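Quick check before the chapter quiz. The format below is the same one you will see on the exam, so make sure you can read both the input and the output lines.
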Amino acid sequence: MRADGSRPNEGRPRAFKSPEDLWDAFCKYENWVESNPILVHDFVGKDGSEVYRRRQRPLVLEGFQSWLVDNGYIGFPDIDPYLDGTYPEFSAISRAIKGKIRQEQITGGMAGIYNPSITARLNGLTEKQELKFVEQPLFGNDE
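Here is the expected output.
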């Protein structure tokens, strides 16, 4: 056994020992998002007073990944095996995390908190329109 806990030919030890550990990390990310709004620099009033407006920070998978790296849970690409099905025991938690992020984005887009068109594109929501083309004869049918 190596000093880092892995065995020879086993690779690096898993960052998350169980699906519950991954869910716990996601809940901590959610709390961080809620308590760390984005500050938008703005100017208001006739004198142009400088202010910072608080905007709700959205949950995003990339944000979760960056938060995990920043907080020492994983190296940068290491979240993928937990979310892409490489570790089947994490599939249910992976679906729950992705579903929670999607639900929050869609709800935020519908409520006008986030840009609705960007939210729709990120989540594969599109409005389908049926276009019907009618051929017009170039010359009348008076042959």
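If your answer matched, good. Helices lie at 19-35, 61-70, 80-83, 91-110, 116-122.
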